[in-house]
Specification:
The structure holds 3 protein chains of 3 kinds. Chain A is built from 14 helices and 2 strands. By secondary structure, chain A is mainly α. Chain A has a two-stranded antiparallel sheet with strand order 1-2. An 8-stranded mixed beta sheet of chain B has the order 6-7-8-3-9-10-12-11, with helices on both faces. Chain B has a 4-stranded antiparallel beta sheet with strand order 2-1-4-5. In chain B, helix 4 crosses helix 5 and helix 5 crosses helix 7. Classes of the chains: A mainly alpha, B alpha/beta, C mainly alpha.
C-alpha cells in the first residue's frame, strides 16, 4: 500500500517530480560501502524482481500527465475498450432512443393499443397476423406494449438509479473516509469501527423491509427512496478506500505546507486531500455503478423497486419471468441487455483500475 | 570434462533476455566465468547489472515469460544444465545447488512451520523419513547457531528476527550438503552487526563443508575478505574479472576503480565520499558504445562509438575497456606510490 | 483466542438489538397497519384487533416486549399464518434455504478455486482469458435472468430437468436452483483465487520453494494455495450476506418454501412477528458466521493473533 499513492496521484506542483519509473525521485542514498542505490527503484530488470519488467512501467515519460498515461494504457486493453464502447452505445441509445422510436413507430413505453386484439404478447418481428414486421423488434408484452420502448426506458431508469445512487454513496463515503483519515486517532478508530459493524449487517434485508413498508406511494417517490436506500448501503467500501488514501497523503509536504499557512481543516480535506484521491475513487465508483444496478434489479425483481408504469431492467425481467414458458422474449431482451450493460461496465471498471494503478489488481 | 579439471561450474556466453512492453531487455548479455571446486566467487555490481539474473539462470529459475535464457552453456559438474530436462534440473536444485536469497523476511513461507520447511528438502532429495528429517532439521538449526533449536524448530517464520531467519535460510540451503551455494545479497536486508555475523557464518560453514560458493553483492566491502575471485558486472556484461587481491590492488577498469573509490576508507580523514556520477543505464536502450561511457571519467570518443574489447591483462585478469592496459598501468603506479596500502581495504571485513 | 470469541459473542447482542430495533421502527413508522393492509375496517372491529395485538399500549411498552421476546428468542406467532409460531416456521423453512445455500457455496468453492488456480498458473493463456471472461459473465448476469434462462433451456426445451418445486435432498430438483445461486459466487471466487494466486506466485517464498527442487505441483499445493486463498476466506463473510439475498430470488423463481419466500410474504403482509423473527435470525447467523470466518483466518495465517 505504501507506494500506491505515488502512482495514482495527479502530479501537483508541490509534489516531487516523477522519474522514469513513475515514482518520486529519491536522492541517491549511500550505503555503508558507498554504493549508490536508490531504495525504491531499480532498473527494469533488477535483483530478480521480474515483476517490474512485466508491468512495463518503464513507459512513464517524464512530464506527461498520469491521466494521459492511464488513458493510453486503457486504450491498449481490448476488453476495457469494448466495455467503454458498449457502455457509450447503450447510454446514448437509451437517452436518444425513445423520442426517435416514438417518431418512427409511434410507440412509447406506456402506449397500450386500444384495439383489444392487440393487447397481448407478440413475438419479435411479428405482426398481429403472424407475418414478418419491423414494428416490434423485441415483440410486445401482455398489454401489447412495445418491449423495445420499455427496454429503452428501463435502461434510462436503471442507469439513472446506478449513477445517482453511486453519487450518493460517493458523497457519503468520501466525506466520511476523508474525515476519519485526516482526523486520525480516536475519532478515526470510532468511525472505522462503525464501518466494520455496518459491514457485517445484512443491510439488503433491511432495505427490503424499508421499501416494503414505505414504498409504493407513487412511482416517483419510490425512485427517490431507491436512490437513497441504495446509496446509503454502498458507501462503506468507498469510505475505507478514501480513508486509506488520505492517511498516506496527509503527511506529505503539500499538506504540511497548507497547514502551516493556516488553511482550515475542512479546506485541507476537501481542497487538498480529496482531489488527490481521485484515481481510486473513480475506479471504485465505476465498479459501484453495476453493483447498484444489480441491487436495484434485485429489488425491482422482488417487486419492491421501480413501479409501473415506469420500468427498469429488473422490473421488466420480473414481468418476463411470469411468462417464461410462453413468452420467453419478455425476459430475454431486458435480461440480456442488462447483462450486457453490467458486463461492459465491469470490464470498463477493471480496465480503469489496471490503467490507473497497475499494482491494485484485486477483484 | 570439467569435473576432472576441478571446475564445479563453467558459464559460457550466457544470455538471458526479458521481453517487456519496452522491448527486449538484455539483462545478462554474454557472460563467461569459471568456478573451481571449493572456491568462492564474488559477483559485484549495482542494481540492475544482471548479477541476480545470472544466478537465477544457473538453476533455471528465470520466470518464463517474460524471461528467457537465449543462449549459452551452464556446465555444472560436467553437465550442461541448460540441456537437461526440467525433472533433472529439479533434482539438482536444493540438493546440489542451493540458494540463499536477499530478503529473509519474505523468502520463508509465512504459513508453514520452520521444521516443515526444512524437512521438505531432506525428505525430497535424501529420502529421509519424517523422524530423520525432523532430527536433521534440528541439527541444521543448531549448526547455524540458533540457540535452543529443538524448542524453536516448530516456530513460524514471523516468530524469528531477520538475522535468525537468514540463519534458517542458510540451514535450509545447506541441508543436503550442496556442492554449490549461491548467496544472493545475503546480508543486504540485515542490520550492520548482523551482516558481519551472517558473513562469518557462511565463511566458517564453507570451510567445514568444502562447498563452493557464489556470493552476489553490490558491496565490495562484503566480498573483500570472503572470495577468491571477483567478477564485476555492469549492464549485463562482465566488466572485469580477477583474483580478489589483484582486483583490489590493481583494478584494470575505470568502473571498478570508481566502485573501489566509493568504499569508505576508515584511515582517510576528509569525509567526502566519492560517488560515481549518474545512474546505471536503462538496459533496454543501451547506447552503441561502452555502456559505462556516459558515467566514465576516462571516456573518449571511441568509447561512445565502439563497444570495448575484453582485454586480458594477465592470464587471470580481464577487463572490458578500450583503455584497459592504460588503466591497469596507472593502478600499478598508484599501488607502488602508496606502498601497498591497498591492504587497508582488504582488511575491512 | 477464547477472550476474542467471548468478546465477539457479547458484541453480537447489541448488534442484533440495533438491527431488530431498526426493523421494528420501520414497520411501526410506516403508515397503516397489518390489518389495514387491504380493506377499511369498521372502528369497533379495529378496536378489538388493537386490543388483541396489544397495539393500544404505549409504544415503549410494545417495544420493550418485542425486545424481551427477541432476546428470549421467542418471536410469538405469525399474523399471516395464523396459529403457527415463528419458531416453527423458521424450523420448517431453514433446512430448505440452508441446503440450497450450502450446496451452492460448496459448488462455487470447488469450481471457483480450481478455475482460479488454473487461470493463475497459466496466466495470459487462452484458458485464463476464457475462464475470466466466463467469470465476468457470471458476475454480470443477474441470477433472476440466469435462473429462468436455465429453466427455459433445460426444462422447457430439452426436458432434462424438472423446472420448479422443492423435492427434498438429494433430488434432481436441486440442480438448477443450486446452479443459479452458485454462478455469481463461482465467478467471484474464481477471480479472487486468480488474483490471490498471482500475487502469491510472485512472492519470494515461492521462489525459495522452487529453488528447493519441488515440483510445480508441490509448489502450488503446499506453498502457494494457502496464501493464495486468503482473499477467498475473507470473502466468505460478505458472501453469506449476499447468499441470503440470492436465496430470496432463487426461492421465488423455483417456488421453494424457504426462508426467503417466507420473508418476502412477511414483508408483503406486514407480518411483524415473522419479519422480526427472520431478520433477527439472519443477523445472528451472519454475525456468528463472520466470527467463524475470523477464527478460521487465525488458524490459516499463524501471524494473526487475537
Amino acid at each position: 500500500m505504501n507506494d500506491e499513492h505515488d502512482i495514482l496521484d495527479e502530479p501537483s506542483p508541490v509534489e516531487p517530480a516523477l522519474d522514469n519509473l513513475g515514482q518520486p525521485t529519491k536522492p541517491p542514498v549511500r550505503t555503508r560501502a558507498g554504493d549508490i542505490t536508490r531504495p525504491t527503484n531499480e532498473l527494469a530488470v533488477g535483483e530478480g524482481d521480474v515483476r517490474t519488467a512485466e508491468r512495463g512501467e518503464g513507459e512513464y515519460i517524464v512530464g506527461t500527465s498520469l491521466w494521459r498515461d492511464a488513458w493510453k494504457r486503457l486504450l491498449k486493453n481490448k476488453l476495457a475498450v469494448f466495455g467503454l464502447v458498449v457502455v457509450v452505445i447503450i447510454t446514448v441509445t437509451c437517452l436518444l432512443g425513445p423520442p426517435i422510436l416514438k417518431a418512427i413507430t409511434g410507440f412509447d413505453y406506456a402506449y397500450i393499443p386500444s384495439d383489444s386484439a392487440l393487447t397481448k404478447s407478440f413475438p419479435p418481428f411479428t405482426a398481429p397476423d403472424g407475418s414478418f414486421s419491423w414494428l416490434h423488434p423485441m415483440g410486445t408484452d401482455n398489454a401489447g406494449r412495445d418491449i423495445l420502448a420499455r427496454v429503452l426506458l428501463g435502461g434510462r431508469i436503471s442507469l439513472m438509479v446506478g449513477i445517482i445512487s453511486t453519487i450518493v454513496s460517493l458523497i457519503i463515503g468520501v466525506s466520511y473516509g476523508a474525515t476519519a483519515g485526516y482526523l486520525g486517532g480516536k475519532v478515526d478508530d470510532v468511525m472505522m469501527r462503525i464501518v466494520d459493524v455496518l459491514y457485517s449487517l445484512p443491510y439488503i434485508i433491511l432495505v427490503v423491509v424499508l421499501l416494503a413498508m414505505f414504498g409504493g406511494k407513487s412511482p416517483l417517490s419510490q425512485l427517490v427512496l431507491l436512490f437513497i436506500a441504495l446509496g446509503a448501503i454502498s458507501w462503506l467500501t468507498m469510505a475505507r478506500i478514501v480513508r486509506g488514501q488520505v492517511i498516506s497523503l496527509k503527511n506529505q509536504e503539500f499538506v504540511t505546507a497548507a497547514r502551516a499557512t493556516g488553511v482550515s481543516t475542512g479546506k485541507i480535506i476537501f481542497r487538498h486531500l480529496v482531489p488527490n484521491t481521485l484515481g481510486p475513487v473513480i475506479v471504485y465508483a465505476t465498479l459501484t455503478i453495476p453493483q447498484v444496478m444489480l441491487s436495484e434489479a434485485f429489488l425491482s425483481f422482488l417487486g419492491f423497486g421501480v413501479q409501473a408504469p415506469l420500468a427498469s431492467w429488473g422490473s421488466l425481467a420480473n414481468d418476463g419471468v411470469q411468462n417464461i414458458a410462453i413468452f420467453p422474449w419478455q425476459l430475454i431482451f431486458p435480461g440480456v441487455t442488462m447483462a450486457l450493460a453490467l458486463f461492459s461496465l465491469n470490464f470498463l471498471g477493471d480496465g480503469l483500475r489496471d490503467a490507473l494503478d497497475p499494482q491494485m489488481r484485486k477483484v | 570434462m570439467s569435473s576432472r579439471n576441478g571446475n564445479i561450474l563453467e558459464v559460457r556466453d550466457l544470455r538471458t533476455y526479458f521481453q517487456t512492453e519496452d522491448g527486449s531487455v538484455k539483462a545478462v548479455d554474454g557472460i563467461d566465468f569459471v568456478l573451481k571446486r571449493g572456491e568462492t566467487l564474488g559477483i559485484v555490481g549495482e542494481s540492475g547489472s544482471g548479477k541476480s539474473v545470472t544466478n537465477l539462470s544457473i538453476i533455471r529459475l528465470i520466470p518464463d515469460p517474460p524471461g528467457k535464457i537465449v543462449s549459452g552453456e551452464i556446465i555444472f559438474d560436467g553437465q550442461d544444465i541448460l540441456l537437461l530436462p526440467t525433472e533433472e534440473v529439479r533434482k539438482i536444485r536444493g540438493k546440489r545447488i542451493a540458494m540463499i536469497f536477499q530478503d529473509p523476511m519474505t523468502s520463508l513461507n509465512p504459513f508453514m512451520r520452520i521444521s516443515k520447511q526444512l524437512m521438505e528438502l531432506t525428505e525430497l532429495h535424501l529420502g529421509y523419513t519424517k523422524d530423520q528429517a525432523y532430527e536433521h532439521a534440528i541439527k541444521m538449526l543448531d549448526m547455524v547457531g540458533i540457540p535452543d533449536a529443538r524448542a524453536r524448530v516448530d516456530s513460524y517464520p514471523h516468530e524469528f528476527s531477520g538475522g535468525m531467519r537468514q540463519r534458517v535460510m542458510i540451514a535450509m540451503a545447506l541441508s543436503c550438503q550442496p556442492e554449490l551455494l549461491i548467496a544472493d545479497e545475503p546480508t543486504t536486508a540485515l542490520d550492520v552487526t548482523i551482516q558481519a555475523q551472517i558473513l562469518e557464518l557462511i565463511k566458517s560453514l564453507k570451510q567445514e563443508t568444502g562447498t563452493s560458493v557464489i556470493l552476489i553483492t553490490h558491496d565490495l566491502g562484503v566480498v573483500a575478505g570472503m572470495t577468491d575471485h571477483i567478477i564485476v558486472m555492469y549492464a549485463g556484461k562482465v566488466f572485469e574479472q580477477a583474483r580478489t587481491r589483484e582486483l583490489f590492488a590493481t583494478p584494470g577498469n575505470p568502473y571498478t576503480k570508481g566502485l573501489l573509490r566509493s568504499v569508505p576508507d576508515p584511515t582517510s580523514e576528509h569525509g567526502a565520499l566519492y560517488q560515481i556520477p549518474g545512474l546505471p543505464p536503462d538496459v533496454a536502450h543501451l547506447p552503441p558504445g561502452c555502456p559505462f561511457a556516459a558515467r566514465c571519467e576516462r571516456a573518449e570518443d571511441i568509447c561512445r562509438k565502439e563497444f570495448p574489447p575484453f582485454v586480458a591483462l594477465t592470464p587471470d585478469h580481464h577487463s572490458l575497456c578500450h583503455f584497459a592496459e592504460e588503466v591497469y598501468a596507472t593502478s600499478q603506479r598508484e599501488l607502488s606510490a602508496r606502498g601497498g596500502r591497498q591492504e587497508q581495504v582488504l582488511d575491512l571485513e | 483466542m477464547l477472550r476474542f470469541i467471548v468478546r465477539r459473542l457479547i458484541i453480537t447482542v447489541p448488534m442484533v438489538i440495533i438491527v431488530v430495533s431498526l426493523t421494528w421502527g420501520l414497520i411501526r413508522l410506516a403508515p397503516g397497519n397489518f390489518y389495514t393492509g387491504e380493506k377499511r375496517i369498521p372502528p369497533a372491529i379495529e378496536q378489538n384487533l388493537r386490543e388483541k395485538y396489544g397495539l393500544n399500549k404505549p409504544w415503549y411498552v410494545q417495544y420493550g416486549k418485542m425486545l424481551k421476546n427477541t432476546l428470549m428468542l421467542d418471536f410469538g406467532t405469525s399474523l399471516k399464518y395464523e396459529g403457527q409460531s415463528v419458531g416453527s416456521i423458521l424450523a420448517r423453512s431453514l433446512p430448505v434455504s440452508a441446503t440450497l445455500g450450502l450446496l451452492a457455496y460448496l459448488l462455487a468453492l470447488v469450481v471457483g478455486v480450481t478455475a482460479g488456480t488454473l487461470a493463475a498458473l497459466k496466466q495470459n493463456s487462452r484458458l485464463d482469458y476464457a475462464s475470466m471472461a466466463l467469470a465476468m459473465l457470471g458476475i454480470s448476469l443477474p441470477n433472476f435472468v440466469l435462473g429462468p434462462l436455465l429453466v427455459l433451456i433445460f426444462s422447457l426445451s430439452l426436458f432434462w430437468l424438472p423446472p420448479t418445486r422443492w423435492g427434498g435432498f438429494p433430488s434432481v430438483n436441486l440442480i438448477l436452483p443450486v446452479l443459479t445461486l452458485s454462478a455469481v459466487y463461482m465467478a467471484y471466487i474464481a477471480r479472487l483465487t486468480r488474483s490471490g494466486m498471482l500475487e502469491v506466485l510472485r512472492a519470494d517464498y515461492i521462489r525459495t520453494a522452487r529453488a528447493k527442487g519441488l515440483s510445480e505441483r508441490e509448489v502450488v499445493l503446499r506453498h502457494a494455495l494457502r496464501g493464495g486463498l486468503m482473499p477467498v476466506v475473507s470473502y466468505t463473510g460478505p458472501a453469506l450476506a449476499f447468499l441470503i439475498a440470492g436465496t430470496v430470488v432463487v426461492e421465488r423463481i423455483f417456488v421453494y418454501p424457504g426462508l426467503g419466500t417466507y420473508f418476502l410474504n412477511a414483508c408483503l403482509n406486514r407480518d411483524e412477528p415473522l419479519i422480526i423473527g427472520i431478520v433477527a435470525f439472519i443477523s445472528i447467523s451472519v454475525l456468528i458466521f463472520n466470527l467463524l470466518v475470523d477464527i478460521a483466518y487465525g488458524f490459516i495465517d499463524p501471524r494473526i493473533r487475537y
